[in-house]
What we know:
The protein is mainly α. Helix content is 39%, strand content 7%. The chain has one domain (23-218). It has helices at residues 44-52, 56-60, 65-70, 76-90, 96-103, 117-130, 156-162, 181-192, 207-218, and strands spanning 23-24, 26-27, 42-43, 109-111, 114-115, 170-171, 178-179, 201-202. The strands form four sheets. Strands 1-3 form a two-stranded antiparallel ribbon. Helix 1 packs across helix 9 (207-218). The longest helix is centred in the middle third of the chain and has 15 residues, at 76-90.
Amino acid sequence: xxxxxxxxxxxxxxxxxxxxxxxxxxxxxxxxxxxxxxxxxxxxxxxxxxxxxxxxxxxxxxxxxxxxxxxxxxxxxxxxxxxxxxxxxxxxxxxxxxxxxxxxxxxxxxxxxxxxxxxxxxxxxxxxxxxxxxxxxxxxxxxxxxxxxxxxxxxxxxxxxxxxxxxxxxxxxxxxxxxxxxxxxxxxxxxxxxxxxxxxxxxxxxxxxxxxxxxxxxxxxxxxxxx
Length: 227
């Protein structure tokens, strides 16, 4: 009853692609999400390569610093940090100090919209403080249930750029199983091959990255469609 009488706090969604700038969403012709073994999360590089007719092996070779730079991935962290802090600030929630703390631990996101539970725990404390509610002196976060879903790695070159630890191991949704980069591409290609072309559409918000990736593919003579 005490909480019910207090001001309602509108909490923004938690979206941060600084560690995963290659992650995107894909829609069918009717607007439905297209899922792979990694849920609704896709790779701009992977799907672009598939639509271009490349092989798995050719696609794997695209995951490098040159591609990331061409697509603007190295600029993502700073932009996303500013955007997330500003978004929460509009709701009257100051998470700037938290961002500093989280970033010191490395990659604090499982995917672009699934933060580690410590982040949610810390935000909850900020909200409780704003509601003028007594906050217990307890800092151990609860179990991280979001880790049961897909986990995308922060690619090594990107991790080095933003001070984290990189990897190319992808965790499948709802399975304690990981695959390497080649395995990831193979599983995604398997799903894509079972969809008509009109059902493989990047969500509009990724248009800039998709266009950049198209230029990468067009400007690399060695990347001809597999025969």
